[in-house]
Amino acid sequence: MHWLWQQQGVLELCHNWGTELPSSGFEGYKSGNEPEHKGFGHICVFVDDLHQACDRFTKLGVQFKKRPEDGQMRHIAFILDPDLYW
Length: 86
Prior knowledge:
This protein has helices at 2-5, 50-59; strands spanning 64-66, 78-79.
């Protein structure tokens, strides 16, 4: 983990090869945040200034699932993507 915190930015994207084929029977990704809780839950992004990042997202019209001042975990925020995944 020490290596991770020394990086400028790391984002790993995964494509499950073959799922794009009609014969695969793939019905789309599931949100790990919905009942059954199977699938992708969220993507984490580390920023130097959380409140500055949240201000920017607000100005861009991004919807929040959780702002830093909501709840007890004041050091994280969750935003929604255009498909309302968080």
